[in-house]
Amino acid sequence: MALYAIGDLHLSFGTDKPMDVFGGGWLDYTEKIKEGFSKLKQDDVCILCGDISWGITLEQCLPDFMFLSELPGKKIILKGNHDYWWDTVTKMKSFFAQNSVENIDFLQNNCFFYEQTAICGTRGWILEDEKDTEYHNKIMAREAGRLRLSLSAAGEAGEKLCFFHYPPRFRDVVCHDIVNVMKDFGVKSCWYGHLHGLGHRQATRGMTDGVDYHLVSADYLGFMPRQVLP
User: What pTM, to 2 d.p., does this model score?
Assistant: First the structure.
């Protein structure tokens, strides 16, 4: 059994928005995703760090969910900025049960355990400009609250890993609300997606202020899930 992470699969089997139009590494990306997941075993766990599907509704996303369900391993997904289909966890679980979508669960205001390690996280947020600061601060506070709930659910777990869609640090931007919650709970490892193309070069990677940051956007990883724990 092993723990993996990858983000930004941007599936579109139920919509006409394939990422192949961006060329380069995105050509035939769904086949690359299948190939990348082929190394996983059925008892492995993979955290999907947001931007799962371009669909707008759960019904529109169903072909994407079925695609994910057929890949090896259990998938735990969190919300990305393009996951417009996201609904309450109760409604999403009910929809999955009605449509026989298996091996997928949701990380929101909760945590999961991989042996003795707690899997925590939330979508996150990032302040890249000064526009509508009140609006951005409100969302940031909400996401920090959700992260605190997730980490609190871990109880006295020996190690807590944090997974996000948005990077808590990017260029010279620091999401202090998020970073401070991680500090309060002694988080030492953080995994995130969202960044593509030139953004890869500006990503925070490695140790910064006691936290080890990892970028796991699918195109950055060559569409192969990155192993987090053995």
Answer: 0.96
